[in-house]
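Sequence only, no structure available. Ideas?
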Amino acid sequence: MTALREIVRTCTNVHIASAALASIGGEFAERVAADASRRHLPSGVLAARMVRAFDAHARADERRSAEAATHGADQPVLAGFRHILARGLFDRPDDEAADMTPAAWAICAARDMACRE
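Reply:
I predicted one. Tokens follow.
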């Protein structure tokens, strides 16, 4: 099973997404929590929804990028999960130049979350 499929299989669960965020910790988890708070959601719910939106709407190049983020990582699922959230919530992965255009799947996720509020 590829790491990306494992991320989707596991991190679309709110409790697992929450645990994964806690495992990542630090400033990254704080940024996700702040974004979730602005949306009046627990951070695990936001993260799980972002992974679901990625699975449903990400383009092939975005999938390849997320899969590439897992290669060589000590914890590939967490690395890919972090990559997906960074691209969806912060407009770019932490280590790439910003193009400041949100991914299309992230826009779909934001619209879906707005409709649920």
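Residues 3-116 form one domain.
Hope that gets you unstuck.
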